[in-house]
Amino acid sequence: MDSDDNLDYYDSDYENQYSDDSDDTANLYDDEEDDSAVNPDDNSKSVKTFTVLQEDDINKRQEDQISHASLILSIPEVSASKLLYYYKWNVSQLHDEWFADEEKVRTAVGLPSDAVSISGTDELITCGICFDPFPIEEFHQMVCGHWYCKLCWKVYITTSITDGPGCLLLRCPEPSCKVAVCRDMVEELVAEEEWGKYRRYYLRSYVEESKKIKWCPMPGCENAIELELGNDLFDVACLCSGTFCWNCGQDAHRPVHCDTVAKWVSKNSSEAENTNWILAHSKPCPKCKRSIEKNHGCMHMTCTPPCNFQFCWLCQGDWREHNEKTGGFYSCNKYEVAKSKGLLDEVEKVREMAENSLNRYTHYYERWVANHKSRDKAIADLNALETGILQNLRDKTLESEGQLKFIKEAWEQIIECRRVLKWTYAYGYYIPEDEQVKKQLFEYIQGEAEAQLEKLHNQAEKELNNFLEKDEADFGVFRQKLVGLTAVSHSYFTKLVAFFETQKW
Amino acid sequence: MVDFSRVQKELQECNKDVKISGISVKPKADSLSHLIGTIPGPVDSPYEGGTFLIDIVLLDGYPFEPPKMKFLTKVWHPNISSQSGAICLDILKDQWSPALTLKTALVSIQALLSAPEPDDPQDAVVAQQYLRDYQTFVGTARYWTEAFAKTSSHGMDEKVQRLVEMGFPEALTRSTLEVVGGDETLALEKLCSN
């Protein structure tokens, strides 16, 4: 096959692209241990291109910047907090403009340098909102000298907080007056609940105004991810164990481009009705026709006794044909329109074309979904391993925790590989039909990587169960095989990823 | 809850200088949360000589929420809907402040009559006419002022009510009155001949 020549080319290139090096940036990421749940070790050593920020981290950064600005500009912290918000946390722009023309900045933000002098009076003053007269103690005094009673101030600020984050820009109620309502005043006047909301809006502004920080899109997760500057690797992993593309917010999809992913996702939603049946969790056994629900991660299916038929979940072909030993290489990643030509009449041809187009899409979609589900299952399996099975195994083998680490590593490799494989199917769908050579090369590399992954997944899943159930199995052999398969899978997938990242089509 | 004590004070204050400003606010019925404002058409505008009625509804949050205002009198203006009377004015929306009052809002509406903002239209048809054919716009606006905002056309609600009580449907009564320029006798004749 002509693609063999090309493979050497990837070998020389992929290490820079995907795996390790660049230790200098590795420590950018604080919580290495928590993070390792979804990343194989080899990958977590790779370039760390992002930082996870928890609520406390964001809060601390804000407070640090506030006290720093307060010191540099010689202003109270409440004023610094207003200025930083107004300047969208762009410290250098704030400094530039402040030192160029302090008065101009003060006027724009609403922080006048001189307060209107207010002398004590025994006379009643009329509130500018409720128009009721009160003694001076009932008023909250602002530097601008506009008179509103404490109750009206409270309702004014509370109403604004209820309306949304616009409360952070609140100013004096007098329309011609631009003096800002600062946070000390908000804290003093409003109820606990509203003050909490106000603080929350303020905290969120730090992420939302930033060009390099985004919220983790996982449901219920309140962490944010900061991307390092000058970085174009967008796959990030949050502490909540969610992985996503920082750029487009979809599931992590490296090495496939955001554009392809967007096309694919919209295609899936528009084809949803046609492909609903694919989503059904069961398929009939190709031999005995009993319904089978796929609840194991790998594609190697074995029907329950007495049938015991072994088949491939994807193509429903005999599993024996998926074995190198029997000469039939694992090949169900290829979509082929195997049709004899010349025998069909015109009507038949039109029907065929429509069917083929749907079949082609279905082929890729089915494999995309299968790998997606397989990955979810693998994550659940890894979780089960860590919460129970590993302990059983320790009791049985008397090995230490460190000695059994290879099982966890194997599962982490499986999870990562399933993710990459899933997205390669979205990519495969969009390879133009006339790019046959590239298509073949892509499918060859994809097929090899997939075959290795199936072996690894099978070993981790079935052989481990065998070992736990039967006493006679040799743990040393199991370990050797699993470690070997993990390494080989890593190498194949590295090649696959490198293939994408060196191709410009 | 609407701050009725403030509304009461506002009404007193506003109606004190009604002779100078021409702007007044009165309760529509017994409740202080539904009011009717009156503004004279500004001098040197196509609305000069007209008297415009504004429907004012106060929501529970008033004065911390803006009052809801719309024209009851039909008016031809880029920022006011010729159909519904809805007004496009920032201080009635996000720029409202509790330090503003019904009077200041009505003064702003009066100023809007003098200085339309066709780039931020409420009524696209009127705004287009204003920009492309200003003379025709002025003519129509003046005609509408004559037809709907002059004293003769006032008391429209009472006229409608009287005709409705005679047994005519309200929508038909209203449109017939508009066609005859508010003349109750002519409207009755027309309604009867239908």
Give the secondary structure arrangement, pairings included.
The complex is a heterodimer of chains A (505) and B (194).
Chain A: H1 3-17, H2 32-35, H3 41-44, E1 50-53, H4 55-73, H5 77-86, H6 91-100, H7 102-109, E2 125-126, E3 133-134, E4 139-141, E5 147-149, H8 150-163, H9 183-189, H10 192-208, E6 213-215, E7 224-227, E8 235-237, E9 243-245, H11 258-270, H12 272-279, E10 282-284, E11 291-293, E12 300-302, E13 310-312, H13 346-397, H14 405-429, H15 436-469, H16 475-502
Antiparallel strand pairs in A: 1-7, 2-3, 4-5, 6-7, 8-9, 10-11, 12-13
Chain B: H1 4-16, H2 18-21, E1 24-27, E2 34-40, E3 51-57, E4 68-71, H3 102-114, H4 124-132, H5 134-149, H6 156-165, H7 170-179, H8 184-193
Antiparallel strand pairs in B: 1-2, 2-3, 3-4
Helix pairs in contact in B: 4-5, 6-7, 7-8
InterPro entries (chain A): Ariadne, ARIH1-like_UBL, E3_UB_ligase_RBR, IBR_dom, Parkin-like_IBR, TRIAD_supradom, Znf_RING/FYVE/PHD
Keywords (chain A): Metal-binding, Repeat, Transferase, Ubl conjugation pathway, Zinc, Zinc-finger
Pathway (chain A): Protein modification; protein ubiquitination
Please give the number of β-strands of chain A: 13
Measured as a percent range, the helix fraction of chain B is 40-55%
CATH H-level superfamily of the largest domain in chain B: Ubiquitin Conjugating Enzyme
Structural class of chain B: alpha+beta
- Gyration radius of chain B, in Å: 17 Å
Gross geometry of chain A:
elongated
CATH fold-level topology of the domain at 258-352 and 359-502 in chain A: Four Helix Bundle (Hemerythrin (Met), subunit A)
Number of helices of chain A: 16
Mean pLDDT of chain B: 87
> Main sheet of chain B, how many strands, which sense, barrel?
4 strands, antiparallel
Terminal Cα span of chain B: 48 Å
Tell me roughly what share of residues is in helical segments of chain A.
40-55%
**E-strand count of chain B:** 4
How many individual helices of chain B?
8
Uncertain residue ranges of chain B: none
The order of strands across the largest sheet of chain A is: 1-7-6
Q: What percent of residues of chain B are in strands?
A: 5-15%
Class inferred from helices and paired strands of chain A: mainly alpha
